[in-house]
Design brief:
Layout: H1 2-8, H2 21-37, H3 41-60, H4 64-87, H5 92-123, H6 139-155, H7 164-172, H8 185-192, H9 201-234, H10 242-273, H11 291-297, H12 300-311, H13 321-339, H14 343-365, H15 378-400, H16 404-416, H17 421-425, H18 428-444, H19 448-460, H20 463-499
Helix pairs in contact: 2-3, 3-7, 4-5, 4-6, 4-7, 5-6, 7-8, 9-10, 9-18, 9-19, 9-20, 10-15, 10-16, 10-18, 12-13, 13-14, 14-15
């Protein structure tokens, strides 16, 4: 009995990961029921919602009530907004109410620790007796998703949903609940209510390819780089060498991409195999030759959300050039705060806001300046791509560093303490991680036709071979997770023995991007 309770209860010390063996087994059981109900819309919707809520509970515990509260609040508000539109009454008060509720939630979970620390630093330790707030799994994503729904109803883009279970489906759909992608309600709601979720052979091949490549990128590249090199390097346990610092920046640049894009591909593939189409979220962003192009390729669903619901609401480019530059800066600065409230995130958002504004200026004053790399000559495209990559990589240093002092230390080490001899002094696991970083970049810069060729092979291979490929990938990922888990446990034990304090694993069960 105790073991059964444990299976269905939340463990705060080990929240569920969507890459865990537990989830894979739960998904297999879920799939059997889904196949039986997939053509019965209402039962299918309720079944998926129940499974999604259970999975979220296993990841976040009683914070499930927060998700349900946001869903109930905005479902009712959107219904009122729809009624106001029908009567020709202003919808602004209701939209403002939704925005206030959602923004206050975001502020509480992302900014309250920073505010409390600032007050205590200004007026003395203990001025504010504050228990640190733990950021809730996926809160930024389901809050943005819910707010966008209310705004879309207000704009007349969609009609308010009549059934609460359909809205819960939109908000809690388990493949996207942790890290998106954010979906447009007008594109996703018709899928929820569709009696037919037909899949072509090409759809199955694409889904399998996305699941396999997503698992590969997330675990065999991102997790290896992060565990064996980036984590220790940013924690200053690998010395103060400049080469280590530089490789850590390049490593995190690739780690975050493989982590987030791998998780997104896994989610998109998983949804597609169920018959639901989520938008693509990444398009080889480090091939970008300008910062504008980068934001068209990186976290596409968030970029679209920021443009449609923030940048345009601020005035977009409709109020003159100077206002356009200010709006770009504010959009990216607020986007940085969305990830978390700290000086490093503020600096990251400001960097990208300034870079986007400067690129707008460049396009307006330099004859022949191009917006994207495909319009450039090959030599200029290569040089521009290298420059853009390093601007982005510097931004990721700000993004990942715990504080600005760490940023300064790492840059100082690169400038004044750099030696290639550091590579030879690294242990075997660190060298393996460096090799994986190189492999990650090589795979990233492969031409698109290579990915399309892989998808074609998997599509033509047939159902049995596709199952074998998926099972083999899951088995490999499970073995890698076991080895990395043992390494992390041994590393924590060594730190605890050395310091005499207990080290708690943070952000357990989440991709690295889920921490931001």
């Amino acid at each position: 009995m105790d073991s059964i309770v444990e299976v269905f209860s939340f463990d705060a010390t080990q929240p569920l990961s969507l890459m865990s063996n537990y989830f894979m087994m739960a998904l297999l059981i879920f799939g059997v029921g889904y196949l039986a109900l997939r053509r019965r819309v209402t039962l299918r919707t309720i079944y998926v919602v129940c499974f999604s809520l259970f999975i979220y509970y296993k990841m976040a515990g009683l914070y499930l009530l927060l998700l349900l509260g946001v869903a109930a609040s905005d479902f009712l508000i959107a219904y009122r907004v729809g009624e106001c539109r029908e009567r020709g009454v202003s919808t602004r008060p209701w939209v403002a109410l939704s925005a206030t509720i959602n923004i206050l939630l975001l502020v509480y979970f992302t900014a309250s620790n920073f505010i409390a620390e600032s007050i205590n630093s200004l007026y003395g330790s203990g001025t504010l007796d504050w228990t640190p707030v733990v950021k809730v799994v996926g809160v930024s994503f389901f809050v943005f998703q819910s707010l966008a729904y209310v705004i879309d109803v207000s704009r007349g883009t969609i009609a308010p949903l009549r059934h609460f279970e359909s809205y819960l489906f939109l908000l809690s759909f388990f493949p996207k609940i942790v890290c998106g992608p954010l979906v447009k309600a007008r594109d996703f709601i018709p899928q929820i209510e569709s009696p037919q979720l037909a899949l072509s052979r090409e759809d199955v091949g694409r889904a399998v390819t996305l699941i396999v490549t997503g698992l590969f990128k997330f675990t065999l590249i991102s997790q290896v780089i992060g565990t064996l090199f980036v984590g220790p390097a940013f924690a200053s346990t690998m010395g103060d060498g400049g080469l280590v610092a530089l490789l850590a920046i390049y490593g995190f640049t690739m780690q975050l991409y493989c982590d987030f894009s791998g998780f997104s591909e896994f989610a998109i593939g998983l949804a597609l195999i169920m018959g639901f189409r989520l938008p693509d979220n990444f398009d080889a962003p480090y091939k970008s030759a300008t910062i504008t192009e980068f934001w068209r390729r990186w976290h596409i669903s968030l970029s679209t959300w920021l443009r449609e619901y923030l940048y345009i609401s601020l005035g977009g480019n409709r109020k003159g050039k100077m206002r356009t530059y200010v709006n770009l800066f504010l959009t990216m600065f607020l986007g940085g705060l969305w990830h978390g409230v700290s000086l490093t995130f503020m600096a990251w958002g400001a960097l990208h806001g300034i870079a986007l504004a400067l690129h707008k200026v460049w396009l307006s004053v330099v004859p022949g300046a191009k917006k994207v790399g495909s319009e450039m000559r090959p030599v200029w495209r290569v040089l521009a791509t290298i420059l853009t990559l390093h601007i982005v990589a510097f931004g990721w240093l700000l993004f990942n560093a715990p504080d600005m002092a760490t940023v300064g230390t790492m840059l100082h080490n690169i400038a004044h303490n750099f030696s290639f001899a550091e590579l030879g002094a690294m242990d075997t696991l660190s060298k393996i991680a460096v090799g994986v970083i190189v492999v990650g970049y090589l795979l990233h810069y492969m031409p698109r036709c290579a990915t399309e060729a892989l998808r074609g092979v998997i599509t033509r291979s047939g159902f049995v071979v596709q199952c074998v490929v998926v099972v083999a990938t899951i088995w490999t990922v499970a073995q890698c997770n076991t080895l990395l888990g043992a390494y992390r446990a041994a590393d924590r034990a060594a730190v605890e023995e050395f310091t005499g304090t207990t080290v708690t694993a943070t952000n357990a069960g989440l991709p690295a991007y889920g921490a931001f």
